[in-house]
Fold this sequence. Notes:
Layout: E1 2-11, E2 14-24, E3 28-34, H1 40-47, E4 55-60, E5 63-64, E6 70-74, H2 85-90, H3 110-122, H4 138-151, E7 156-160, H5 168-185, E8 188-192, H6 196-202, E9 205-210, E10 213-218, H7 220-229
Parallel strand pairs: 3-8, 3-9, 6-7, 7-8
Antiparallel strand pairs: 1-2, 1-4, 4-5, 9-10
Bound molecules: adenosine-5'-diphosphate (ADP) and magnesium ion.
Amino acid sequence: MLALTGIEVHYGAKQVLHGVDVTVGRGELLAVLGANGCGKSTLLRAAAGLQPMTSGEVLVGGEPAGRLDIAVIFQHIHLVRRRTVLDNVCAGALGRLPLHKSLVPALFPAEVKEEAMACLDRVGLADRAHDKAGRLSGGQQQRVAVARALCQRPKVLLADEPVSALDPAASEQVLALLAELAHDEDMAVLAVLHQPALAARHADRIVGMRDGHVVLDGAPDQAVDDLYSYHLVETVS
Ligand SMILES: Nc1ncnc2c1ncn2[C@@H]1O[C@H](COP(=O)(O)OP(=O)(O)O)[C@@H](O)[C@H]1O
Ligand SMILES: [Mg+2]
């Protein structure tokens, strides 16, 4: 579904991705791990079209990725804290609407609000729709960010360290949600994580990176052992 092929990225003269190939199937949650600075975020930004590439190709379903095919969520959750949860989720649909730049929340079409409610329900937070986003816990806010991404109706969901700011229980919940979206909605989900154990519990496949190269790609159990033996992650997670 998502195919990244031969991705090369330079920052000035420095090459940080050296021809990375990664695929994520429909219905699959792929976890990407590797030491700080190995190029995980750069890869994710390149996949999302947010990072100029020296060369490489990003295909979704065999076609060049369209503007709305790929949704992204980040470690730092960019919700408008003073707006309601529902307004924040509606914003995910804006890219699909004509004249969206002139829309204020009061004017969100009813069908957008309905869909946003369905997305909130999907992440288990329909009952918080009318609360101010800033009143929710970190884990709940990240689930709102997932709902907002869903409202874009993407085929692919990318998440850059989505649980790094969350406590262990909230981390499990968000990862379980991402796996569920992959499995039940047939999305291709790629999450950059830094905890091998968390990845092993939730991901269908794990990719390990070092210095801008993919150095392992496999089933979670084997991959987690390899992450340690190749020193791609700290020994304590
Ligand atoms: N905007 C940038 N300009 C220059 N160098 C960058 C920039 N962003 C990241 N880098 C460098 O590129 C390398 C990969 O960074 P990054 O993709 O953020 O790694 P990771 O997410 O795996 O920690 C690092 O050496 C980092 O310092
Ligand atoms: Mg990063």
